[in-house]
Each structure stands twice: as structure tokens, then as C-alpha cells.
Design goal:
It is built from six helices and three strands, in the order ααββααααβ. It is an alpha+beta fold. The two termini are about 30 Å apart.
């Protein structure tokens, strides 16, 4: 199937970017059969998409029920976990609130705070700012035991 798909892709490549003329090709029995197969496949794909959408929605509801049951805990012993991961990210809002003068100076110099240029050119200063003006960003990853 993959070889056939690749072969047809190569075959039609020359037509894809060409402007068509005004002629029409007369249909053959083979053309009609291909159109019928295509329509059948499209109907099946639509059915599968509807079922996939339904199953994804149902999955989300069930997963959210488990997450709700877990709440602030790490998980449900032997069944599922919902682990937190915390990373510290630079908070422009925190810098602005705590030190508006420094915020203004950095913004004047770098046009955008927390840029690669700032981190490279002012690495010591960046480390100091990092300790004071970084806030935690928390995300959680849900996992069913055994998966």
C-alpha cells in the first residue's frame, strides 16, 4: 500500500503545480469505480471520525473523573498517577512589581526581557534576577498504572 501511494504521488507531481486547460476527460468504467471507492472510503472515514470524536470525549470525561478523585494527591494507589512537575520561569510581572526601575532599564536595553542576548551578555546579573524574579510553572502529567 505504501509503495502504491508513493508511486501515485510521484506520478501526479508533474500535474500538481501546472495550470489546467479547459478540456474535460470522458469518464471510463474504471473512473466511475474509483469514484465509488473514494466515496465509500470518505463515508467510512467520516464514521470513524465521528466515533473517534465520541471516544476522545468519553476518554476526557473518564480521565477528568479520575483526576478529580486524585485532587491534590499524587495518585490512586496502583491505578493512576497525576504527577506535578515544577519549573521556574522568568516572571516579567514580578520584576515589574518588585523593581520597576530595573524592569525599565532592561526593557530599554533589550526591547524584550528574558532574551537569549540578555542571558548571554549579563549572565551574572541574570542569575541574580533568576533567584528573585522567577516564578514556578506547574504542570501535571496523568498516567494509568501499567501504561
Amino acid at each position: 500500500m505504501t509503495a502504491a501511494a508513493e508511486s501515485t504521488r510521484r506520478e501526479i507531481a508533474k500535474f500538481e503545480k501546472a495550470e489546467c486547460d479547459s478540456s474535460m476527460v470522458e469518464p471510463t468504467l474504471g473512473d466511475r469505480e474509483l469514484v465509488r471507492k473514494l466515496q465509500t472510503l470518505e463515508q467510512r472515514l467520516l464514521k470513524i471520525k465521528d466515533e473517534t470524536d465520541f471516544l476522545n470525549s468519553r476518554n476526557e470525561v473518564i480521565e477528568n473523573q479520575l483526576k478529580s478523585r486524585i485532587g491534590f494527591a499524587l495518585g490512586i494507589r496502583g491505578l493512576a498517577t497525576w504527577k506535578s512537575s515544577i519549573r521556574r520561569i522568568f516572571s516579567q510581572e514580578l520584576l515589574f512589581k518588585r523593581n520597576p526601575d530595573l524592569y525599565g532599564k532592561l526593557l530599554d536595553r533589550f526591547h524584550c526581557i528574558d532574551t537569549k542576548a540578555w542571558r548571554e551578555q549579563q549572565s551574572q546579573h541574570y542569575k541574580q534576577v533568576q533567584q528573585t524574579y522567577f516564578a514556578p510553572a506547574i504542570s501535571r502529567s496523568f498516567k494509568i498504572a501499567g501504561n
